[in-house]
Write a structure and sequence with these properties.
Radius of gyration: 32 Å
Helix content: 25-40%
Largest sheet: 8 strands, mixed
CATH architecture of the largest domain: 2-Layer Sandwich
Shape: globular
Distance between the termini: 23 Å
Structural class: alpha/beta
CATH class of the largest domain: Alpha Beta
Number of helices: 29
Strand order of the largest sheet: 31-32-33-34-35-36-38-37
CATH topology of the largest domain: D-amino Acid Aminotransferase, Chain A, domain 1
Strand content: 15-25%
Low-confidence stretches: 253-262
Number of strands: 38
Oligomer: single chain
């Protein structure tokens, strides 16, 4: 991931248009018109060997003739000429290019890929960044750049729109123009040869002209980069995404459009949720979400109050909220008392708050002021139906007056009608009060706020500490490798259960019989009803070929069933090699639910964990959820709650709730298994029985393939880096465990800060910290191991005595460090040893420089920095702070 030279795209000093034209209607002519008419204050130079002047400006025959360096070039030359044009631009010092030209693989994929690679090879020596090819172009309203062939220049705003589709860009621009919605930037990525979603999310996360980011996604080509940048951006501002290709036909169309294979839509959904993005599913919903989230409104909960002058409109809104993430608020008694004092006696007396059809503006103002103070409500939807006895514009002005007195007041509006309310809607839009045409749209917008708030909360939720032991990884690896060495691609049921037991996933006792007679003897030893299953390396779905018999109650019955099973399997799958049978006790847990848990591989996001309702009809029921590994307790529970069967697991009638911790732990163990055993490409535990007693796997299927890679390399999110764990010895002889921080460490981190001297805390945070709230602690404990690292020093009691961290820039060039040692552990060499380890990690990561800001009065830190080789220089504008720098590469 890198934002290198993207400043040349967003803030160029000079722009060149290569392929400019005077021919009416041509791409070169349209872009030239847009560039010159947008109002960019710097030089705009045109290049075309066949023209003397473009739009009354001197034209140049080639890039080499340009009289001054340009930061940004817009290229519309024929595809075969692009590599040489890029090379020439690089030699002239150009740092970014928007390649409009198509023909890089949309039809002839082989020749297109070769041409695309030549273009990238030409750019690489100059670190020249490329947007496109095959794109609409680029618009930035701040510096007045319109380097596109869009049909209009959007007004200035604070929403950035990044899209793979040029047609979607023009559609959204047209919609926004009609509704007075502005943009900070509009970027059409096209084929994403170089600059992609990850790069732009990184840049826009820190862009102070952008308050919300809008994505139109057809495919993601670098999942880890996308997830890392997406999580950073979503923590900083709303990121709204619409994903095309949800259906099989849509995915195929997206492939033909972008040339990139898209993964399963359910996996994209899980990825967006994990990153903290808000997904919408249609264009109208996209526009609603932009209007809502860019308003700056943020909720604390999911309770909605409805204020209306028409009972019917209130009923429609109430119906719309049923079955959605939001719910209707119950008014507090004190709120009802206050409303009785300002409303006529005929008001509804409950939520929806119907203030009667003749409500003037003052009545709206009084009622809304009261409702915004209700502790039981998180937002208010104000509805207005036009009448002949009350002015809708007056009511709108009243709402605006109330909202203007409260920063980011959680108020949504819906003025029903068309002609009579047009002026009111314009007034709301001008004052950034979200407004919608129908109650359904308004409620959907409220639910966008609810979903966004829940995503953000989930991003920062502290997971519980793990409650299970480390797995027997070596035993599991031996079993899997033995199968691969034999040339097999699937484990037997018996072998699969051995792998599960190595990860402490409970399984039913399973025994192997080679003959029907031996199966009968094993059944006699068990002495209870048994299940009999065929044992074959070639059969993965045993029930499909008649290879499963249940509830066999006698040894003779088992023998007979085994002989019949051999005949049935031979008939249905003649090529299958039969090794024998498995015999296992029938599990009698009448209140248990049948679940499925396992692993699948997605072509975009790699391995994913799957959970849902199990049994033989699992494909028909299709009740499932997926999640990207690694998982923790919070993520596992959230995954379970996304399924329909979660409601049954919670208990009903005479059935007690299932052991949710046992189910969550099983999903976490599967997630760990994914990282430890990269040879496993598929895993199904079906059924996994779950009830109040816990879980037990009745059957399991594992498919493997040879691999030399590290399991976690396939993950879209880098998991916990166990290899960085070590130990250190302090000068007092105390031995501490040094390891990367975990999200579960938040309580220990808070405890360390609270048990430290306030002066030491001030030295760490460069200022007084009166409290250490959850949000702050979560940001420090829930880190992206791809971009940052924090090492904690932990004593034998599990207390954190010190923590050191580095946070790298997106280019992985430089990183800022910070360190803190608990006050009672200072003076024992802990700080120096932690710094040594984090510097070693920075070198291994390939960083070129590590720096930090230190208070001038923090002499111990400055002395230690000098001992480690840091150079002290002047800091920021604050005279109390100095900067220390350590080059890691000479």
């Amino acid at each position: 991931m890198t934002t290198r030279n993207l400043d040349a795209l967003f803030n160029p000093s000079a722009i060149a248009l290569v392929g400019a034209s005077n021919r009416p209607g041509s791409i070169g002519a349209v872009i030239a018109r847009n560039l010159f008419e947008a109002g960019f204050e710097g030089p705009i130079l045109t290049v075309n060997p066949k023209e003397r002047a473009i739009r009354s400006s001197l034209n140049y025959n080639s890039v080499a003739e340009l009289p001054i360096p340009v930061d940004l070039a817009v290229v519309t030359a024929p595809p075969d000429e692009i590599p040489q044009v890029i090379a020439d631009l690089g030699q002239k010092g150009c740092r970014a290019a928007v390649v409009i030209t198509s023909g890089f693989g949309e039809k002839d994929r082989a020749s297109g890929k070769e041409l695309r690679q030549r273009m990238l090879d030409a750019a690489r020596p100059h670190l020249l960044r490329i947007v496109g090819p095959n794109c609409l172009g680029f618009i930035s309203t701040g510096p007045r750049i319109n380097a596109s062939y869009a049909h209009l220049m959007p007004r200035k705003g604070d929403v950035a729109f990044v899209t793979q589709s040029g047609a979607m860009a023009t559609t959204v621009l047209d919609w926004a123009s009609a509704r007075s919605v502005g943009f900070s930037h509009v970027i059409s990525l096209g084929d994403k040869a170089d600059v992609d979603f990850g790069d732009l999310l990184d840049h826009l996360a820190l862009d102070n002209t952008t308050r919300a980011i809008l994505l139109y996604v057809e495919s993601v080509t670098d999942a880890r980069k996308f997830m890392s940048a997406g999580r950073i951006a979503a923590r900083a501002k709303p990121v709204i995404v619409i994903k095309a290709g949800r259906s099989a036909a849509g995915a195929k169309a997206a492939l033909s459009h972008t040339g990139a294979l898209a993964g399963a839509d359910i996996v994209y959904d899980a990825a967006f949720r994990r990153a903290g993005m808000l997904r919408v599913y249609e264009l109208r919903e996209l526009f609603e979400a932009v209007t809502t989230l860019s308003s700056g409104i943020r909720l604390q909960g999911d309770r909605l109050t409805i204020l209306t002058n028409g009972g019917g409109a209130g009923v429609l809104a109430t119906d719309a909220i049923e079955g959605t993430p939001g719910r209707l608020a119950t008014l507090a008694p004190e709120t009802i008392t206050k409303l009785n004092g300002v409303l006529p006696s005929t008001w509804s007396g409950a939520n929806p708050v119907d203030i009667v059809g003749d409500a003037p503006g003052k009545r709206y103002e009084d009622a809304l002021s009261v409702l915004l103070e209700d502790p039981n409500s998180d937002a208010t939807l104000v509805l207005n139906c036009p009448t002949a006895v009350a002015d809708s514009s007056e009511a709108a002005d009243a709402v605006i007056r109330v909202v203007s007195k409260r920063r980011r007041a959680p108020v949504l509006t819906c003025w029903l009608g068309e002609t009579a309310v047009a002026a009111s809607r314009q007034s709301f839009a001008a004052c950034r009060v979200p407004t919608y045409e129908t109650p359904d749209e308004a409620v959907r917008a409220f639910n966008h706020l609810v979903s966004y708030q829940r995503n953000q909360t989930a991003l920062m939720e502290t997971p519980p500490a793990r409650t299970f032991d480390e797995p027997d990884r070596d035993r599991a690896r031996q079993i899997v490798q033995a199968v691969i060495d034999e040339g097999r691609s699937a484990l037997t049921e018996f072998e699969a259960k051995q792998v599960l037991r190595a990860y402490d996933i409970p399984t039913v006792d399973t025994r192997i019989a080679r003959t029907p007679e031996e199966a009968g003897r094993l059944a006699a030893e068990i002495g209870k009803p048994v299940a009999l299953k065929i044992l074959s390396h070639d059969v993965t779905h045993k029930s499909d070929v008649g290879g499963v018999r249940l509830d066999l109650r006698s040894p003779a019955g088992v023998e007979e069933a085994a002989r019949g099973m051999l005949l049935t399997v031979a008939e249905r799958m003649p090529a299958a090699r039969i090794e024998g049978f498995t015999v296992q006790e029938m599990i009698n847990r009448p209140h248990a639910q049948e679940l499925i848990a396992g692993i699948a591989n997605d072509p975009t996001f790699g391995p994913v964990v799957l959970f849902g309702e199990g049994g033989i009809a699992v494909e028909v029921i299709a009740d499932r959820a997926v999640a990207l590994p690694p998982l923790n307790g919070v993520l596992a529970r959230e995954m379970i709650e996304r399924t329909r069967i979660a409601r049954l697991l919670a208990g009903y009638r005479d059935r007690p709730p299932a052991d949710m911790e046992a189910i969550s732990s099983t999903l976490i163990k599967i997630s760990e298994l994914l990282g430890d055993l990269p040879q496993i490409s598929e895993l199904d535990i079906n059924p996994l029985l779950a009830d109040a007693q816990g879980v037990i796997a009745l059957d399991a299927r594992i498919v493997v393939h040879p691999t030399k890679g590290i399991g976690t390399e396939r993950f879209a999110i880098r998991p916990y880096p166990t290899k960085l764990t070590s130990s250190i010895t302090l000068t007092d002889g105390q031995v501490l465990l040094v390891r990367p921080i975990r999200p579960e460490d938040e309580p220990q981190l808070v405890d360390m800060v609270r048990r430290s001297d306030p002066r030491d805390v001030r030295m760490r945070f460069l200022g007084s910290v009166k409290d250490f709230p959850h949000l702050m602690a979560a940001r420090l404990s829930q880190i992206d191991y791809d971009r940052e690292m924090a090492l904690v020093a932990e004593n034998k009691d599990g207390e954190v005595l010190g923590v050191v961290r580095i946070i790298a820039d997106p280019d992985n060039e430089a990183a800022e460090y910070a360190i803190m040692v608990r006050s009672d552990s200072k003076g024992k060499g802990l700080g120096f040893q932690l710094m040594t380890r984090i510097l070693d990690h920075g070198r291994q990561k390939g960083l070129r420089r590590i720096f930090g800001d230190v208070l001038r009065e923090n002499l111990p830190m400055l002395h230690m920095a000098e001992d480690l080789g840091f150079k002290i220089t002047a800091g920021s504008d604050d005279p109390t702070v100095v900067r220390v720098n350590l080059p890691l590469v000479e």
